[in-house]
Amino acid sequence: MTNKEEPSANSQRNSPSVQVDLYCPDDAGTETTGPLSRPGSTAAARAEKPALSEDADSLMERIVEEANIEAAFKNVRRNRGAPGPDGESIQDFFEQFRHRWPQIRQELLDGTYEPSPVRRKAIAKPDGGERLLGIPNVQDRLIQQAIVLILTPIFDPHFSESSFGFRPGRSAHGAAKQVRKTIRRGFRFVCDVDLSKFFDRVQHDVLMSRVARRIKDKRLLALIGRYLRAGVMVEGALQPTEVGSPQGGPLSPLLSNILLDDLDKELEQRGLPFVRYADDFAIFAKSKRAADRILTSISRYLTETLRLVINQEKSRVRSSEEFEYLGFRFVGVRASLNVSPKALKKFKHRVVTITGRSRGVSMDRRLGELRRYVRGWMGYFGVASQLKLFARLDGWIRRRIRCCYWKQWKRPKTRRRHLIALGVPRRQAIRHARSRQGPWHMSKTIASGVGLTNAWLAAQGVLSLKSLWAELAHRR
Q1: Which residues, at least 6 apart from 148, have a Cβ–Cβ distance to it below 8 Å?
Q2: What sign does the dihedral 220-247-10-163 (CA atoms) show?
Q3: Contact 222, 111 (CB under 8 A)
Q4: How far are the Cα atoms of 100, 184, 343 from residue 327, in angstroms, in the given order?
Q5: pLDDT one-digit tens code per residue, 186-232
Q6: Which pTM value belongs to this model?
């Protein structure tokens, strides 16, 4: 699909892991503790039990095992996240949960546990509109994560090799590289299908029938169903969730992969090359005519079999040169990875916000925010083959930082003092300090170039995208 926001580094960290080191020692040589840890407990005393088969009807016992709950808590704590409707933070939960756990565990085993509603949070989408999130309480996040740790090894081995979203050892980079590989094979037309509000419109019966293909534990199936129907709190009022799998909980990404795996199998059976990242997928063809036929038939399959809603306005056949996927464009015969114009615009907007001259924050704080954002952005887009673009962005960012310093110095006397301290000749420093030109103009003067040099800005903590790109290229 097009016009989708690229996955953030945080979203990739949230991918479930099935290889969790439950009790590895920390840097000080002491054992990592979880919410159920007791004095005197040791890693050796917690030997792993044999994995249950997917047909087992006692998965709930495996979910509530102490080792699994502590592993789940490690993931919840690492991912942080905002409090749910009860307002309880992760730290407060950590202090109280050990005392609550025996009762919760028994309710889970008895099949009587009732999840709490989620908190509605709306975030703006880059192309307009809102994305609705459902933020569970920490307790329900923990239980969902415990379920994910057990179900992932059951479902994931059966997923398609062309599915990359929210899977262990896979990422958006892998999806983008497979798109590039497919285009290089001559598939230069793309069926770009947009599922309208996928997570909000999943039909519960369609989803649960697919979960039940591999899960036989009726208590677990009932619990997952209750999570889907738990409802959402909107301005203090409870709204039922008769459809949808709210984004925001650990279970939602796995459930989306389970449902859309039917689509993957259908495409594989037809011999069609495709790439999918969660609900964002593209199907490839060598001619526009073939792509049009594929779009029509797959749209019918999605609406009639999976009962999903397609955004007809955004779904269309595109050439590979027009296609954008996960923040990347694919340019030329070699389908070189480039930052999409939309992702570049978003980057510039964020940098402008951070380096706004009227924010009223210290330069240390401003530069700290900029470092974190630039490093994370390059961690994702550093695979792009655009060294010249990154060099241009470096110059633009440095000029904005010089503007901030010039604005911060304010008075001519202060500006003169700083310029002289930075090595600018006194007469030149006086002339520029008295200038009536604005900060943007002055950021390009000889005084700024001599005084606020690239090396000096780097010493203050201004990162270079070009240097980060070179580091990433060296590691690859």
Answers
A1: 16, 72, 250, 251, 254
A2: positive
A3: yes
A4: 44, 19, 6
A5: 999 999 999 988 888 899 999 999 999 999 999 999 999 999 998 88
A6: 0.82
